[in-house]
Design brief:
This protein has 311 residues and is an alpha/beta fold. Helix content is 35%, strand content 22%. It is built from 10 helices and 11 strands.
């Protein structure tokens, strides 16, 4: 890690450490795992986390079992320095940029509160917003095709939850027509700033909001569009319930990604698991529990598209 960091990087580290500390249950030790102790930069990052945990009263031996009398299974914190690193851990931190580390995964009961989610999601996407369309702009035609298949009613209200840079907004506007309403929501201000040009012409609404707590009245939407959202939620089941709350009976849920699950997993250097939230079985059960009926499921190589109807 550089000896001198910018003020923004220092704030990022403060947020990260606060988030990690909030995730460790009282009286439970933590162990920090790194890909290699030979990496001096990663070792310094691990030491900084260890020191912060110790100050907060969390025992944190490096690569060691907990002391006698402590819980036999400590919380494992993994510093991931490469996308191909898929080692299992309770808390996974993307440390590829040591000046901008971000919590990317929290497993099991630790994630239930989700207090870490806001700061870490914003930290991950904020620094990527300006170049997002440069990297992924070729996907826009696939968004239009998915919206065309979704059956979004003309004249209706459609909500783009997790809109990012607004890649779906033009197609959603075309679907509802001039008498309809498009509301684009995202958690990250920098993403909304990038989406502004796509929304300005039709005066579509841009809203800073958490997908788990939408600032919308119940049964106010005719359709909800969510591209790449579910895998970023700490509790997908609660997310589906909130999307159901704002959708009228008979309304449509559109879950989309411009890459199929297998292609996306291969890009990230991991294998698909049958228990993932977007696997057909878990998705069907989770949406049903939240008040949806899954009516279409297409996990092709070049896209993922699932449609559900509000019961």
């Amino acid at each position: 890690m550089p000896q001198i960091m910018t003020a923004a990087a220092e704030r990022r580290w403060d947020e990260l450490l606060e988030g990690i500390i909030s995730l460790i249950p009282d009286g439970v030790p933590a162990v920090i795992s790194c890909p290699s102790d030979d990496d001096a930069v990663t070792a310094i990052s691990a030491e900084r986390i260890s020191e912060a945990l110790s100050v907060a009263g969390v025992p944190c031996p490096r690569h060691a079992p907990p002391a006698d009398g402590q819980r036999s299974e400590p919380v494992v914190i993994r510093l991931r320095t490469a996308r191909s690193d898929r080692a299992e851990a309770d808390i996974v931190i993307d440390a590829q940029d040591p000046g901008w580390p971000v919590i990317r995964k929290v497993s099991g009961p630790l994630a239930a509160g989700g207090k870490w989610y806001l700061a870490e999601t914003r930290a991950f996407f904020a620094c990527r917003a300006a170049t997002w369309d440069v990297k992924f702009g070729d996907d826009i035609p696939s968004y239009a095709a998915a919206v065309a298949e979704a059956g979004i009613p003309a004249g209706g209200t459609v909500v783009d939850v997790g809109c990012g840079t607004g890649r779906a907004v033009p197609a959603l506007r075309a679907a509802v027509g001039p008498s309809g309403t498009v509301v684009a929501l995202d958690l990250t201000p920098e993403m909304l700033q990038e989406a502004r040009p796509r929304c300005a012409a039709a005066r579509d609404a841009l809203v800073l909001a958490d997908a788990r707590r939408l600032p919308l009245a119940g049964s106010s939407a005719d359709a909800v569009f969510a591209a790449g959202l579910v895998m970023h939620l700490p509790d997908p089941e609660s997310g589906f319930a909130e999307l159901a709350r704002v959708t009228r009976p008979g309304g449509r849920l559109v879950l989309f990604h411009p890459s199929g699950r297998a292609s996306l997993a291969a890009r990230h250097g991991r294998a698909l698991r049958p228990d993932e939230p977007l696997s057909e079985g878990p998705l069907r059960r989770a949406t049903a529990a939240a008040g949806w009926e899954l009516t279409a499921y297409d996990d092709a190589a070049d896209r993922f598209l699932a449609l559900a109807t509000r019961r």
